[in-house]
Amino acid sequence: xxxxxxxxxxxxxxxxxxxxxxxxxxxxxxxxxxxxxxxxxxxxxxxxxxxxxxxxxxxxxxxxxxxxxxxxxxxxxxxxxxxxxxxxxxxxxxxxxxxxxxxxxxxxxxxxxxxxxxxxxxxxxxxxxxxxxxxxxxxxxxxxxxxxxxxxxxxxxxxxxxxxxxxxxxxxxxxxxxxxxxxxxxxxxxxxxxxxxxxxxxxxxxxxxxxxxxxxxxxxxxxxxxxxxxxxxx
Amino acid sequence: xxxxxxxxxxxxxxxxxxxxxxxxxxxxxxxxxxxxxxxxxxxxxxxxxxxxxxxxxxxxxxxxxxxxxxxxxxxxxxxxxxxxxxxxxxxxxxxxxxxxxxxxxxxxxxxxxxxxxxxxxxxxxxxxxxxxxxxxxxxxxxxxxxxxxxxxxxxxxxxxxxxxxxxxxxxxxxxxxxxxxxxxxxxxxxxxxxxxxxxxxxxxxxxxxxxxxxxxxxxxxxxxxxxxxxxxxxxxxxxxxxxxxxxxxxxxxxxxxxxxxxxxxxxxxxxxxxxxxxxxxxxxxxxxxxxxxxxxxxxxxxxxxxxxxxxxxxxxxxxxxxxxxxxxxxxxxxxxxxxxxxxxxxxxxxxxxxxxxxxxxxxxxxxxxxxxxxxxxxxxxxxxxxxxxxxxxxxxxxxxxxxxxxxxxxxxxxxxxxxxxxxxxxxxxxxxxxxxxxxxxxxxxxxxxxxxxxxxxxxxxxxxxxxxxxxxxxxxxxxxxxxxxxxxxxxxxxxxxxxxxxxxxxxxxxxxxxxxxxxxxxxxxxxxxxxxxxxxxxxxxxxxxxxxxxxxxxxxxxxxxxxxxxxxxxxxxxxxxxxxxxxxxxxxxxxxxxxxxxxxxxxxxxxxxxxxxxxxxxxxxxxxxxxxxxxxxxxxxxxxxxxxxxxxxxxxxxxxxxxxxxxxxxxxxxxxxxxxxxxxxxxxxxxxxxxxxxxxxxxxxxxxxxxxxxxxxxxxxxxxxxxxxxxxxxxxxxxxxxxxxxxxxxxxxxxxxxxxxxxxxxxxxxxxxxxxxxxxxxxxxxxxxxxxxxxxxxxxxxxxx
Lengths: 234, 801
Ligand SMILES: Nc1ncnc2c1ncn2[C@@H]1O[C@H](COP(=O)(O)OP(=O)(O)OP(=O)(O)O)[C@@H](O)[C@H]1O
Ligand SMILES: [Mg+2]
What we know:
The structure holds 2 protein chains of 2 kinds. Chain A is α/β, with parallel strands linked by helices. Chain A has one domain: Rossmann fold (3-Layer(aba) Sandwich), CATH 3.40.50.300. Chain A has helices at 44-51, 74-84, 100-110, 115-129, 144-156, 174-189, 201-204; strands spanning 2-12, 17-28, 33-37, 59-64, 67-68, 85-89, 162-166, 193-197, 209-214, 217-223. In chain A, the strands form 2 sheets. A 6-stranded mixed sheet of chain A has the order 6-7-8-3-9-10, with helices on both faces. In chain A, strands 2-1-4-5 form a 4-stranded antiparallel sheet, covered by helices on one side. In chain A, strand 7 (162-166), helix 6 and strand 8 form a beta-alpha-beta unit. The two termini of chain A are 23 Å apart. By secondary structure, chain B is of the alpha+beta class. Chain B has 4 domains: 1-47 and 284-418, no CATH class; 57-61 and 70-221 and 265-270, no CATH class; 438-457 and 669-801, no CATH class; 466-668, no CATH class. In chain B, strands 17, 18, 19, 20, 21, 22 and 23 form a 7-stranded mixed sheet that branches. In chain B, strands 4-5-10-7-9-8 form a 6-stranded mixed beta barrel. In chain B, strands 1, 2, 3, 11 and 12 form a 5-stranded antiparallel sheet that branches. The A-B interface holds A 49, 52, 54-55, 74-75, 78-83, 85, 87, 89, 91, 93-97, 106-107, 109-111, 140, 154 and B 415, 418, 707-708, 710-719, 721, 794-795, 798, 801. The structure holds adenosine-5'-triphosphate and magnesium ion. The site of adenosine-5'-triphosphate has 12 residues of chain A, from strand 2 and helix 1. Chain A: This is ABC transporter ATP-binding protein.
């Protein structure tokens, strides 16, 4: 599904040149749940942003669903973002001026989904994530956990091929954090491909594969030993 | 404390250079507009303000109904009034025009264009300071009183008192020298007292409205009563005898010819009064003054709105500073003071800049208004202080209160940046700006259309290549003979195609107007006395019958033509050959002249009666010019030849003086052309200020939405979507502002168009153009700004917040 080869990213400012990614190569298969770990500044977010087409690589190759992504224009990237990718951020990144309902609905508007269909899907998604009674609220009126659930709802609403999560539990207490992790595990069980950045070993234990990064390089890749049994409710 | 404030202020300026600059420039332009208007206002309001008699002196105006207002009166009215009314202190007959003539002294001539003929008590009405002579007795028949300037021009260092000069072939003795007051409705360079003679000739002539009349009341409040008394005097002395002569009752007479309506206007109100006036210096342009005031206040509001908008928007950026200040113990009042202080600094700077602008543009402005305005005198400085205070209140208090009421906690938690506070205020202001801009765009387009209409309108005559040369009379007994000589000689000059005369001004009307009766209808016609060939020269067609011609002897004795307007009042289907009794003479109608614009386009085409000058003997006394049509290709040299001929053979006393018929007519609507030009300039100013504001506000609001934009981009919004999201609200405001402007613009411009009889009607075109222009400008500004925002790297905004 994702094929990264010799990918590098260099940030240039006036004084310094930072090599945030240094010849990274990795593969993520369809339906995999992969976590990225590593010390601060090791390039995790940079990697995720490039995979999510929010940023572009300096060199190397990145193939998504068999298509080369390096070098395509913003218009094309926007198209793939809205159709294939769902984002969840540490700081939720909800639009404060829009209600919960409007926030969740937004990606469908950009995807040209008919409005009757949109309302149905928002209701269903809210039901699934337990935020139905919050649809009329504004983000500022919700707890962190609730906000993150809205963000997850928004990321899932278009049924993307891949979900990218950058420290989704970073701003949450352990209880809310667990809820979000359970949600992601559920999604994974439902067949979603997930790439998640985290600092927590506990969170990482939910995934199948953990990539350890340091100084912009992939240090190791290990399959999860501990297997979690999941009740699949198909 | 102040040092700290100044420091913060400086810091803010440094960080918002562009916006501060735009803001300051906008404010300065707004203030300079107001200063311009105030200078004009002060100048006009200074008229007659010096005159101690200004509330007691009244101008007598006759409202003649359909025939307009007459500013002249018959000679017997004054004496009768003084005798019968104990409310009147005195009266003073005077010409309400100046004579321009040479004054001879010791064989030298000095031309004065403002010689006034008035009764001897003139200086009780206009008490100019006398430098020499006795104010009370200086003016008498055969004396002349000079203004200091003219006395200097004639006599130099010599003492003018009791010197003999010659004016209009009469010897006169200088009996006084006065210092002219510049702002006066009568501003003569010299005053003589020849009018008494003419008054005596007209002692009982109730029908000859020949003289300007001022009266002085004992008590200004009795003005209505005195007007009534005058109407009664007319009724008894004019209407009753006339009715008796016709053998009808006074009531029947009044029903047929109308009664009397007198208006008295106090000298203090003349310059800018709502009643028209006939004083020699003319009135100020009250409507234009009000337009200037209104427009400049609108522009100032626009720039103040900009200021408020930017200040409150900026305040959000400063929320943290304010929050911290509050936490360390600043009270609301402290914070309000600080913001007022900043506004005061800005305003002071803006006023200084605006004074520079005014100083630079003043020469152009003076040219435009035909004035000599200067920034001088205590009044304007007092007004500047008032502007300063008003600015601080209007521009400072809003943002100050707004900032002082920030909720400290919210601010410090950091989520204030996206709170809704102040958004309504700012959006409302933005709508107001759009409304003002729309008002200007649409309004000035309508003005443009009307001016365009006037300058391209078919006037019914062609004045191309025709000049009129002023011919001064010498011997009153042989005016026409002299004209004929001149005509025959000028016709021989190379390049001259046609020569004729007409005792009328195109754009100003005939020199006299008489009424006659036909089929029981009373026609007040313009007396269009002329020589053969005049109508042909002006290409005015005769649509029925024939024009006067040398081939018919009767055409200088008893023939007349009427125009279509006269015919309508006469109610005659077959006018040719009909007889008319005109001022006691039997005239026969030989033709009908097609209507043409004798007056300016602000007036309707009047009934006109045409005949040869010789037909009515006294017509020739008003003959004072010769119309000459010149070959277009030889214009300059031909005029030069005529001038040489003129100076050597016709008139060696006065300079050769001519005018183009076309240009003279254009001057009747010149002030509107000027207004159009002014509006075009103001339009640009307004649009620039409004766009400044829009740009700054859009920038601020987009900056605050950068994170939102980044999120939307993450979700896959493409550029088109984002631009729509960001632009949408401004388009809505633009539409609302435009809708708000529609009614006022329609109403006010309709009022303005009422100035004209010949006018356009307001169509949808100006509105469509205004709307499209406003929308396009808005889109350019907002889309430009939005596009830049959308193209920025989104990650920066996702990361930090
Ligand atoms: N826009 C940028 N300009 C310059 N340098 C950048 C930029 N973004 C990231 N970097 C640098 O690239 C490196 C990798 O940053 P990145 O955000 O990917 O780290 P991270 O692994 O996500 O760290 P953390 O765990 O703290 O989130 C860092 O050294 C960072 O300073
Ligand atoms: Mg990171």
